[in-house]
Specification:
This protein is of the alpha+beta class. It is 22% helix and 34% strand. The relative contact order is 0.08.
Length: 336
């Protein structure tokens, strides 16, 4: 398979038959809203500059075209750093988290294999492959360093989740001919879409324990989830019977409070935040014992501890993600 720029590659891999993906919408400013301040930018010397994602700190990851496609990161002050993974002849950047970690893929000099990569804020690049794949496409990274994406081997596309230590777990929807994880939140919940044997696309969400729920928008011929937040809300778009596009938001209760706590404990353990781990273990025992008030108090203490360690034992973005996850669990328990 020949290398393609990101927009072309996405359309070719998904293989949407007779459905046009190249579209732009011109949106007017709503009544009462202020006009935006727009800053345009290009990478110096490029003929084209493409944006992948922007994080909550205003950092942008993308790729640009000169003699080939290369990666870049633009900070909130407008400074642009360009890069390529070692041995890359084509680089595509897909996403950036709040720690400045970028994920994407690159083609090597043979132009026959594409490999995944994670680039940290200091510019260190870690490359990786998925067993049996010739193309690896990391599509999302959360603030805990977990990566979701898909890989192509032969005529089949498989999903995967890669944890912060580099361990890769295959993610395939049962009965699917191809699976495309497209987003991952800070609780490790994944949203994406899959292709069935009738060439129709459907949505799915996968919780942190690996349980998969599939869904379709009513009346849709194809459903494409694109994003998932930490409250289990999934946003995306779908095609109706007349091949018109519409947006949707689907809200899921992906996990019980006990499951959410177990997932958060695993995350905190990975980060080595043992003071917080002890508080969450107490909260989990109290939830399982039906002692909701006490569990809420432990979660409150955990949030306070996280906020106190922001910028100390925890990086600010890690603290923000942990506090948001604990707040979600409080909401699920009905804490005051």
């Amino acid at each position: 398979m020949s290398p393609y720029r990101k927009s072309q590659f996405k359309a070719i891999v998904l293989g949407l038959v007779t459905v046009g993906l190249g579209f732009l919408s011109l949106v007017s400013t709503p009544a009462g809203a202020t006009s935006p301040t727009i800053t345009t930018f290009d990478v110096s010397g490029s003929t084209d500059t493409e944006v992948g994602r922007i994080n909550n700190l205003g950092q942008v990851a993308g790729d640009y075209l000169d003699s080939t496609s290369r990666g870049y990161v633009r900070d909130a002050q407008g400074n642009i750093t360009t890069y390529d993974p070692p041995g890359a002849v084509i680089t595509q950047s897909f996403a950036i988290n709040d720690l400045g970690r970028v994920v994407g893929y690159y083609w090597d000099s043979t132009s026959s294999s594409a490999h995944g990569f994670v680039r940290d804020a200091q510019g260190n690049v870690t490359t990786f492959d998925v067993s049996g794949a010739i193309i690896v496409v990391p599509s999302a990274i959360n603030n805990l360093g977990q990566v979701a994406g898909y890989s192509v081997g032969g005529f089949t596309t498989h999903g995967f989740v890669r944890d912060a230590h580099g361990n890769i777990t295959t993610l395939d929807v049962s009965g699917a001919t191809s699976t495309f994880p497209y987003a991952i939140n800070d609780l490790g919940q994944v949203a994406g879409f899959y292709l069935d044997s009738s060439s129709h696309y459907h949505g799915f969400v996968r919780d942190a324990q690996g349980n998969i729920t599939t869904f379709d928008v009513s009346g849709a011929t194809h459903t494409f989830p694109q994003a998932i937040n930490d409250f289990g809300q999934v946003a995306g778009y779908y095609y109706d019977g007349n091949n018109h596009l519409h947006g949707f938001i689907a809200t899921f209760v992906l996990s019980s409070p006990s499951q959410l706590l177990a997932s958060l404990i695993a995350t905190v353990t990975t980060l080595g935040f043992h003071q917080g781990e002890n508080l969450l273990q107490n909260a989990l025992r109290q939830v399982n014992a039906g002692q909701t008030t006490q569990a809420c108090n432990q979660l409150g203490a955990f949030i306070n501890k996280v906020e106190a360690q922001a910028g100390e034992q925890l990086i600010a973005a890690e603290a923000s993600g942990l506090a948001a996850a604990a707040t979600q669990i409080q909401a699920a328990l009905g804490c005051d």
